[in-house]
Amino acid sequence: MARNIFNQPPKEDLEVTAAPPAPAKTSRLPGSVGGLRDSLREITANSIRDIDPDRIDIDGLRDRLMLEDGSINELAESIRKHGQQVPIMVRPSDQPDRYRVIYGRRRLAAIRKVGGTVKAIVRTLDDDASLIAQGQENNLRLDPSFIEKALFIREMQEAGYKPGVIQDALGLSRQGVSNHRVVIEQLPDELIRLIGPAHGIGRRQWGDLAALSKKAPLLDIARETLSLVKNDTPSPEKFQAVFDSASRKARGVAKRNTPSQSSVVRDASGARLAMLASDGRSVAIKITRKDNPKFGQWVEENAEAVLRQLFDQWRNERGSGG
Prior knowledge:
This protein is an alpha/beta fold and 322 residues long.
C-alpha cells in the first residue's frame, strides 16, 4: 500500500444516536463498485454483529491526521456511559474468522479501551468499494479538512486507485482532486504534521502557504515558530502562526534581494547637484551642503511646497494618460 504519514487513528465525532448514513447516489459506479450503492441501502439493525475487537485488523489508507489520545479517551468514556450507538463497518479478511476495518477506526480504538465487543456491519466489498464507503462515511459524519483530503488523495493515487474511484470516495470532481494535489505536492509532510488538520483553513490559504515555499524555508520556520507556542494550541492557529512567520521571512528576503541603484544629478554645466538613490523600499535625494550649500538650504526651506508641486504634476500626468 502507499506510504502513510498518519500517526494515529482517523478523527470522528462523538457517538450519536443516528443510524449510519448511506452514501449519495452516483451513476459512475460500475461493476462491483456499483454494488456498494445498493449494498449500503440494505444495512439494517439485523445486519449488525457483535465482534471481538481483537479479530479486527486495522489496515488500508487512513483519511485523518494525527489525533490526540485525549480525544480517544473522551470517546471511550462516552461509549462507557451510553454504549456504542453507531456501528463500524468491516469486511472479511483472507484469514479465517478475522475482519478488516473499512471505517470506524476511532470508535474501534475507543472500544478497545473500554473492553467488550464492537458493533460492526459486515460487508463483502473489494478494495475500490471499501475505499468509497470509507470516504463517503467520513464525509457525512465529520467533513475532513482540506489538507486531510489532499493527503488522502495522494495516498489513494500512490496506492494505484483509479481517478473515478478517488472522486467517488470524496465526492469531488476531477478538477477538485487536481486542486488538492497541486497544493500537497509543494508542502513537506513534516510541516503538515506539525500544523495538523487545520479545520477551516481552505485551499486558498494552504495554496498561499505553499507558494511561500519558493521564497522561504517553510519547514525550518514551522519548527521554530511552533516551538514557541503551547502544545494545545488549536491547529488553525498553528497554521496562522506559521503563515505569518513565513510571510515576514519572505518579505525580508525580497527586500534584501532588491538591488539598490544610485545616480548623480548634474546641472546644465555638468556641476553636481545631488545624488538620487533608490531600492525596493524608498527613493532618496541627497544634496551635499559642501557641493552646493545655498541650493541645499533653499531645498530645505521649500521642500514641502516643491514635493506637493511634483505630486500634483504626477497626478495630472497620470490622469491624462501620461
